[in-house]
Every structure is written in C-alpha cells, then in structure tokens.
Design goal:
Blueprint: E1 3-7, E2 11-15, H1 18-24, E3 29-32, E4 36-42, E5 52-59, E6 63-70, E7 73-80, E8 85-90, E9 96-101, H2 106-113
Parallel strand pairs: 7-9
Antiparallel strand pairs: 1-2, 2-3, 4-8, 5-6, 6-7, 8-9
Length: about 120
C-alpha cells in the first residue's frame, strides 16, 4: 500500500510498496508541490481509473498498478479494488495528469496535502 508524504515543503512523494514498484516497473513518484492543482478522495475506486491500461499490472476486480494512457497524456494508478482512492490532479506541465493511490490513512493524507492546493484552483 502506498504512502504519500510532503518533503521539505517542495516535493510530494508517493512511496510505493515494494510489490507496487515491481508491478509498475518504476520507483517512487516525486511531484513538485507547485504541480498540484487539486486533491480529492474518490470513494469509488473505478472512477479514479481513466484511459486505457498501459505498462503495469492489471488484475480485474483486484488491483490496478501502473500507467494509464489518455489521449493527451498519462495517469498513474496504484489502486486496490474496493477501497477509496486519493487522487492528485496535476498541472499539464508534469508527466502525469493524475496520480491515484490507495493509502491507509485517506483523511490524514488529504489534510497533509490541502495546504499545497492552490486557492484559485484555476491552474
């Protein structure tokens, strides 16, 4: 299960579990806090998945870990089916448009990220 932290008020880091790193074939995700547009909780895991599956591990009705391909970019997902998902909406200048992860403490994660969401939300 992933963990989301903010390091030095400059980077949001999505720490993937070892098996998630293996499944996604990548390491942790590091996002500058300036790339964050919005953060929200998606109670229905399947609503957090957009686009077509790309590189990663996709087991129907179990897990979705890896890259999701969109017409104009990519998303990253590390989701366990049946659990709520924290969604980080990112600026177009960053590699991913959205990072969706299942974390143990959804409310704590949202509280930790809220100060970094732009107040105008028009970015």
């Amino acid at each position: 299960m992933a963990r989301v932290t903010v390091e030095d008020d400059t980077d949001i880091v999505v720490h993937l579990a070892p098996w998630e790193k293996l499944a996604a074939r990548r390491g942790d995700i590091r996002v500058p806090v300036t790339a964050l547009r919005e953060v929200h909780l998606e109670p229905d895991w399947w609503r957090a998945l957009r686009g077509l599956r790309g590189r990663g591990l996709w087991i129907p009705d179990r897990i979705a870990v890896g890259i999701r391909v969109l017409p104009d970019g990519e998303d990253f997902a590390a989701i366990r089916v049946g659990h709520p998902v924290v969604c980080l909406e990112l600026r177009r200048t960053y590699r991913f448009a959205r990072v969706s992860v299942h974390v143990a403490d959804t409310e704590g994660t949202l509280r930790a990220l809220e100060p970094y969401v732009p107040r105008d939300r028009l970015a």
